[in-house]
Amino acid sequence: MECPYCQNTSSRVLESRSTEAGQSIRRRRECLQCKHRFTTYERIEFVPISVLKKDKSKESFDRSKLLRGIVRACEKTEVSAQQIENVVEEIEARLQQSPRREITSQEIGQLVLQYLRELNEVAYIRFASVYGEFKGITDFVETLNQLQQEERESSSSPEWSDAGEEATVIEDSSQVMASS
């Protein structure tokens, strides 16, 4: 590592720490010649991902573009900057773990929607309206109705169905006892 002060290539590591959720290592170094201290960061170099857009053009995956879109959707909600950063990191990690080096913008949009759906419904609707190119109020109403339907389906308590099964078992055993 070259010293930023004297350009000497000999330095020693004084301290190493994991940063950014284990995505990089921060190293505190000391130049062996001039004795100045400086910090370096070591990151994993990812293979670039190409994004295939709707118009069939390609561009390199841009993390900051993803972050901007999610920040915009989460404005004036209770979603914290750390939660947004976590979502971006998780999406980026999923893209990097994929064996494919080319992904469509629609696939990225669907990933964002999955995370925002769990994080905040308002942010989900905002992102969906831009991503889905809503043309009018009908598109919003359809999406809201779909959210409400999913909410109703997921709110059916498993305890309720268990209680129903127990009641059936009790009825069956009482019938057996009555017939004995």
Question: In words, what does this structure look like?
Answer:
By secondary structure, this protein is α+β, with helices and mostly antiparallel strands. It folds into 2 domains: 11-43; 50-144. The chain is built from 6 helices and 6 strands, in the order E-E-E-E-E-H-H-E-H-H-H-H. It has helices at 63-74, 81-97, 105-119, 121-131, 137-155, 158-179, and strands at 11-19, 24-31, 37-43, 50-52, 58-60, 102-104. The chain has a 3-stranded antiparallel beta sheet with strand order 1-2-3, with no helix packed on it. A 3-stranded mixed beta sheet has the order 5-4-6. Residues 159-180 have low confidence and may be disordered.
Q: What's the oligomerization state?
A: single chain
**Any idea how many domains?**
2
First-residue to last-residue Cα separation: 88 Å
State the secondary-structure class: alpha+beta
H-E order: EEEEEHHEHHHH
Mean pLDDT: 82
- Strand order, largest beta sheet: 1-2-3
The proportion of residues forming helix, as a percent range, comes to: 40-55%
Strand tally is 6
Query: Major sheet: size, sense and barrel closure?
Result: 3 strands, antiparallel
Radius of gyration (CA) equals 27 Å
Shape: elongated
Q: Could you write a compact summary of the structure shown?
A:
The protein is α+β, with helices and mostly antiparallel strands and 180 residues long. The chain has 6 helices and 6 strands, in the order E-E-E-E-E-H-H-E-H-H-H-H.
